[in-house]
Design goal:
3 helices, mainly alpha
Length: about 100
């Protein structure tokens, strides 16, 4: 579909001067080229970054799963490992 022809039919007063018509056609061509280039760039970046995003999502899910499953064991390990007395360790873990 030719947009410029459609615009000429709808807005004939805008295309009375050949210079104006050429400027509109050039602006439309620039718009299409820029839009296509930006869309392709964004899509390429998404495809390139997809493995990294999936790996990070996998790590988050694994940490979340084991955090839910073994959270109490982790707190017990922290209580035993911290070099403070029991009251200080309890206050540290509670906050």
């Amino acid at each position: 579909m030719d947009i410029i022809s459609l615009l000429k039919k709808i807005f004939p007063f805008m295309f009375t001067n050949p210079q104006i018509s050429a400027n509109i056609e050039a602006a439309y061509g620039t718009f299409l080229s820029t839009t296509a280039n930006e869309t392709l760039t964004k899509f390429t970046n998404i495809l390139i970054n997809l493995p990294t995003i999936l790996l990070k999502l996998f790590i988050v899910l694994v940490v979340f799963f084991y955090g839910l499953r073994d959270g109490d064991k982790l707190l017990d390990l922290m209580r035993e490992s911290l070099p403070f007395n029991k009251s200080t360790t309890s206050r540290f873990i509670e906050k």
